[in-house]
Backbone:
């Protein structure tokens, strides 16, 4: 089994680390970190990464199961992978499971899902207290991998792991992470990594100088740097881990860096991927001839070079719940009703409309009676999540309930027919205009009574870099 397609998702929002330093009067480093927007969580980002992966998957490919890994799940005591499953419009016969709670869950998901031909999704949001290293050096993002026997662009050569119980990073539900003194973590991780790497290279029958690309990812950056320099690969083989532009994305990080490498790697190259989290995991991967003809639906560099949104530090704190601000003077939203959500799963999560078989009229939401020819129960379901559309009209609401006012609502005319009113996201209210092209994205509308209300919003296909004020 090997990777047949992949997709990484980086949120459009960025936080400049110098703005943290200016606000707190202490150095916070250089560069930027990726920031999940106010209407994103690990589930919604997982959906977006999976959509990119599925767009490049071989025709007819279906996963044996969906495995979702994160250290920051939107729900506890409820499976998050089922919402991803529904948003992707997958068949009910495909099982969906969570592997959540720690960064190392990501490696577990890959090793459990890859031999089974699964869709493996890794997503994380990394946040610390104001002024902490986790806040400045963390990042948010997701990655997804599709596995199969035939047509794979990578193949597993060897894998090895080491495990040890030690207290490096921890938190209990409802708190932010804490970390022990850095020198202790380095002393624990480095020998574990060296042992795992030695074993993986021995299994592969190669030495370190045969490695073409080395990726070291982990929750302990200092240990990761030491390990990268101690393995013995050629210096030019060490891959940039992107932490300077997106931060450390936790459970998703090694996967995101790997997809960035695969976007431009050549066939028949050896990749050593080392992950440090509560132990060490080392994998030797070989790219295949199929990589030469593979094209990702959206590359990591396209997202890095594309339009981004500069987030002011107070806005970031508000989104992360670190700064409580006066809400709009409107009634709080009501919690979503479970029976209605269950009955309308295909629409609410899968964004599936209907098309009249008699006259061809498309309906959003899906309807039993055609608004044009009045035909009854002559409808064919159509998934519209991957279609683009055009803004027919819009309004800017400065009083609606939102963590990031004002709210932009638009009426969208979809390609191929169908009109629908929905919220917009990742958009500058000052520049949005009639005729703009948009695409759909799965987002968190609001949370009420601890129930997350997910639905689809429109975002610009191409926009301008802007600073969003709260």
Residues:
């Amino acid at each position: 089994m090997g990777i047949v397609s992949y997709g990484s998702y980086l949120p459009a929002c960025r936080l400049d680390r110098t703005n943290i330093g200016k606000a707190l009067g202490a150095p916070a480093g250089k560069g930027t970190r990726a920031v999940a927007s106010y209407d994103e969580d690990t589930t919604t980002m997982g959906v977006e990464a999976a959509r990119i992966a599925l767009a490049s998957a071989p025709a007819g490919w279906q996963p044996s199961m969906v495995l979702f890994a994160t250290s920051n799940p939107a729900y506890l005591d409820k499976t998050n992978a089922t919402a991803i499953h529904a948003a992707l419009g997958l068949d009910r016969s495909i099982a969906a499971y969570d592997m959540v709670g720690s960064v190392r869950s990501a490696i577990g998901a890959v090793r459990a899902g890859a031999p089974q031909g699964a869709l493996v999704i890794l997503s994380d949001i990394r946040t610390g207290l104001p002024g902490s290293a986790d806040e400045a050096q963390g990042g948010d993002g997701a990655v997804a991998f599709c596995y199969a026997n035939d047509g794979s662009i990578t193949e597993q050569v060897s894998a090895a792991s080491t495990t040890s119980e030690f207290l490096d990073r921890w938190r209990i539900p409802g708190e932010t992470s804490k970390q022990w003194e850095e020198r202790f973590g380095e002393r624990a991780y480095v020998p574990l990594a060296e042992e795992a790497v030695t074993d993986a290279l021995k299994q592969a029958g190669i030495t370190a100088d045969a490695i073409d690309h080395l990726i070291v990812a982990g929750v302990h950056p200092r240990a990761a740097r030491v390990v990268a320099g101690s393995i013995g690969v050629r210096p030019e083989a060490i891959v940039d881990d992107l932490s300077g532009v997106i931060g450390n994305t936790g459970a998703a990080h090694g996967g995101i860096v790997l997809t960035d490498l695969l976007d431009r790697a050549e066939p028949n190259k050896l990749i050593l991927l080392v992950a440090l989290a509560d132990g060490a995991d080392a994998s030797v991967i070989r790219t295949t001839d199929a990589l030469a003809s593979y094209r990702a639906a959206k590359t990591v560099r396209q997202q890095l070079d594309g339009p981004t949104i500069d987030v002011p530090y107070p806005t970031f704190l508000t989104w992360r719940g670190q700064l409580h601000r006066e809400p709009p003077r409107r009634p709080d939203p009501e919690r979503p009703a479970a029976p209605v959500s269950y009955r309308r799963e295909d629409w609410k999560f899968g964004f599936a409309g209907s098309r009249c078989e008699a006259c061809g009229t498309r309906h959003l939401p899906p309807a039993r009676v055609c608004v044009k020819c009045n035909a009854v129960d002559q409808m064919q379901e159509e998934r519209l999540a991957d279609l683009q559309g055009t803004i027919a009209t819009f309004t800017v609401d400065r009083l609606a309930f939102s963590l990031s006012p004002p709210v932009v609502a638009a009426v969208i005319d979809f390609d191929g027919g169908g009109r629908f009113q929905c919220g917009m996201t990742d958009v500058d209210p000052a520049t949005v205009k009639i005729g703009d092209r948009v695409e759909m994205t799965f987002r968190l509308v609001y949370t009420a009574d601890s129930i997350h209300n997910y639905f689809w919003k429109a975002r610009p296909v191409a926009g301008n870099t802007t600073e969003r004020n709260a």
Summary: The longest helix spans residues 182-204. The mean pLDDT is 94.
